[in-house]
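Design a sequence for this backbone.
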């Protein structure tokens, strides 16, 4: 007490503990959004050529593997393809004609059965150059293109007897047609590939419309020129010189063209 009185006498105020205020933790700043992933750098011309070579090599390997199977089974395949001509003989004008026939049959067999691999490799090469929206639009049409190719071959097989009947109808007056293996099987394989590839026509038009290159109005405006182009193309691409093949092919292409216009218009393009 004496000490407290002395302190008061000296003018000093007693000190009391001051309640401490709670220290607030610093507010953490809002998270910074992650920077968008950098887009891959554009490929150089050398990179594009290297990628193209890789895709071509894979396609060729697939075709050759399937062609080896086709060469092994070329006999039964030839028997099936001979059916439209019945008992008409086929002759070879060279010693190596039958060997090269087996090779041709094998290669066409490899291309037809290897079409899924060819379409996939083509898609894998083209897809990186498309936008995500374009890839989303085009991707479902890759398997549809394979289906249309098979439909084209089926149509060619149906047309083949009628085309041959038209050509054989000119026999008479001492004139006969002698078929060689080269001409006959060359006619068949060319017809198959022509119809199979032509069936990709509507798919190409639809994809071009989805990426904004063509519209239904533009296709309708160009209808006359398209009909002329179809007539010329069907005449040039079909072998044999008959009237049935180019007529059926031309009508098929025109029908697909009109269907394409309808589908594109319904899609709002």
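Sequence:
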């Amino acid at each position: 007490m004496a000490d407290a009185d002395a302190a008061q006498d000296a003018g000093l105020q007693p000190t009391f503990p001051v309640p401490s205020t709670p220290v607030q933790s610093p507010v953490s700043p809002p998270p910074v959004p992650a920077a968008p992933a950098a887009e891959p750098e554009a490929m150089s011309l050398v990179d594009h050529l290297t990628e193209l070579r890789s895709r071509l090599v894979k396609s060729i390997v697939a075709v050759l593997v399937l062609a080896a199977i086709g060469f092994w089974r070329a006999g039964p395949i030839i028997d099936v393809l001979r059916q439209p001509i019945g008992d008409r003989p086929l002759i070879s004008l060279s010693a190596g004609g039958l060997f090269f026939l087996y090779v041709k049959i094998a290669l066409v067999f490899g291309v037809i059965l290897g079409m899924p691999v060819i379409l996939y490799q083509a898609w894998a090469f083209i897809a990186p150059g498309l936008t995500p929206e374009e890839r989303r639009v085009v991707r479902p049409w890759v398997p549809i293109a394979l289906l249309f190719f098979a439909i084209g071959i089926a149509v060619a097989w149906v047309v083949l007897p009628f085309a041959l009947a038209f050509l054989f109808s000119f026999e008479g007056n001492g004139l006969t047609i002698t078929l060689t293996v080269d001409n006959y099987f060359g006619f068949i394989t060319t017809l198959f590939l022509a119809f199979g590839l032509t069936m990709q026509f509507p798919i190409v038009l639809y994809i071009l419309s989805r990426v904004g290159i063509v519209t239904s109005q533009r296709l309708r405006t160009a209808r006359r020129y398209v009909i002329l182009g179809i007539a010329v193309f069907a005449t040039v691409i079909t072998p044999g010189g008959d009237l049935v093949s180019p007529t059926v092919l031309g009508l098929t292409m025109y029908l697909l063209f009109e269907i394409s216009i309808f589908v594109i218009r319904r899609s709002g393009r």
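Residues 46-266 form one domain.
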